[in-house]
UniProtKB/TrEMBL annotation:
<protein>
    <recommendedName>
        <fullName>Ribose-5-phosphate isomerase A</fullName>
        <ecNumber>5.3.1.6</ecNumber>
    </recommendedName>
</protein>
<feature type="binding site">
    <location>
        <position position="122"/>
    </location>
    <ligand>
        <name>substrate</name>
    </ligand>
</feature>
<keyword id="KW-0413">Isomerase</keyword>
<feature type="binding site">
    <location>
        <begin position="27"/>
        <end position="30"/>
    </location>
    <ligand>
        <name>substrate</name>
    </ligand>
</feature>
<comment type="subunit">
    <text>Homodimer.</text>
</comment>
<dbReference type="InterPro" id="IPR004788">
    <property type="entry name" value="Ribose5P_isomerase_type_A"/>
</dbReference>
<comment type="similarity">
    <text>Belongs to the ribose 5-phosphate isomerase family.</text>
</comment>
<dbReference type="InterPro" id="IPR020672">
    <property type="entry name" value="Ribose5P_isomerase_typA_subgr"/>
</dbReference>
<feature type="binding site">
    <location>
        <begin position="95"/>
        <end position="98"/>
    </location>
    <ligand>
        <name>substrate</name>
    </ligand>
</feature>
<dbReference type="InterPro" id="IPR050262">
    <property type="entry name" value="Ribose-5P_isomerase"/>
</dbReference>
<comment type="pathway">
    <text>Carbohydrate degradation; pentose phosphate pathway; D-ribose 5-phosphate from D-ribulose 5-phosphate (non-oxidative stage): step 1/1.</text>
</comment>
<dbReference type="GO" id="GO:0004751">
    <property type="term" value="F:ribose-5-phosphate isomerase activity"/>
</dbReference>
<dbReference type="GO" id="GO:0009052">
    <property type="term" value="P:pentose-phosphate shunt, non-oxidative branch"/>
</dbReference>
<dbReference type="Pfam" id="PF06026">
    <property type="entry name" value="Rib_5-P_isom_A"/>
</dbReference>
<feature type="active site" description="Proton acceptor">
    <location>
        <position position="104"/>
    </location>
</feature>
<feature type="binding site">
    <location>
        <begin position="82"/>
        <end position="85"/>
    </location>
    <ligand>
        <name>substrate</name>
    </ligand>
</feature>
<comment type="function">
    <text>Catalyzes the reversible conversion of ribose-5-phosphate to ribulose 5-phosphate.</text>
</comment>
């Protein structure tokens, strides 16, 4: 997706916020545009209190003097604006391409609304083309990976799974000190059941299926930006 389309989706979502709001800040290259735009508004006097979903977003926000807080300090957020790897017609998402899915899900769940910003290539008929990121505890990694493989087979996965690695070959560590296993399903026919099955695996901390959290999206394409709401 071009940076221009990401920017356009982020610009459209600026209409969702107003001064005084408590805002969850997503992670990824599209969310980054939103944080930039918000920073420019803050410099002009816009009031907000924000919870970032990753150390990367926190660093960006701090650099722009966006006031930050935590979910220890406040209970609820008015809205979270975040990117996605996939979104289907029922506003179910696959997230975690940027390895921030755990904090993203915690922040989205603490928000009155989650608004997704993306280009329209992220809109899919059936989730699963994008490998599902699964955040796992490093302890007992092999056992957890085996159990994930078994669950994948039960759900008719078309591909395998792989531990996400950094360019130097070492296992990627999330902000929470966990690893990510990317599970290639091809298509996920029953996202709700899969979600439950994955969460039953003891070593699984969380997975990137976001169900019932998002109800609005701005999807940018070369012909314009559309707002979807459910
Ligand atoms: C990070 C995420 C991102 O929101 C998702 O990967 C989309 O990123 P981008 O806007 O760079 O395409 O879930 O964990």
């Amino acid at each position: 997706m071009s940076e221009e389309l990401k920017r356009k989706a982020a610009e459209a979502a600026m209409g969702e916020i107003s001064s005084g709001m408590r805002i969850g800040l997503g992670t990824g290259s599209t969310a980054r545009h939103f944080v930039d735009l918000l920073g420019a508004e803050v410099a002009r006097g816009f009031q907000c209190l924000c919870v970032p979903t990753s150390e990367a977003t926190a660093a960006q926000a701090r650099g722009l003097a966006i006031p930050l807080t935590t979910l220890e300090e406040i209970d609820r957020l008015d809205v979270t604006i975040d990117g996605t790897d996939e979104i289907d017609g029922a506003f179910r998402l696959i997230k975690g391409g940027g390895a921030a899915l755990l904090r993203e899900k915690i922040v989205a769940a603490a928000s009155e609304r989650m608004v997704v910003i993306a280009d329209d290539s992220k809109l899919v008929e059936t989730l699963g083309r994008f490998p599902l990121p699964i955040e796992v505890n490093p302890f007992g990694l092999a056992a957890t990976a085996r159990a994930i493989g078994e669950a994948m087979a039960r759900f008719g996965a078309e591909g395998g799974h792989a531990l996400r690695r950094k360019p130097d070959g070492t296992a990627l560590l999330t902000d929470g000190g966990h690893h990510i296993i990317d599970a290639s399903f091809g298509r996920i026919s029953d996202a709700e059941a899969l979600s439950g099955a994955l969460l039953e695996i003891p070593g699984v901390v969380q997975h990137g299926l976001f169900i019932g959290l998002c109800s609005e999206a701005y999807l940018a394409s070369v012909s314009g930006t559309i707002r979807l709401s459910g």
